[in-house]
Amino acid sequence: MNSGRQWSLFDKLxxxxxxxxxxxxxxxxxxxFSWGLFMFSAMSWx
Length: 46
Hints:
22% helix, alpha+beta
């Protein structure tokens, strides 16, 4: 898996967003995750 684009923790559009690219069975795929969104949801969980 190759490290892709990473944005700073304080990005205004999508906080702490990371994007990765990987190859599987000869095809190229990508995945993204927003730590900021995850942390916001965790703090709001009751």
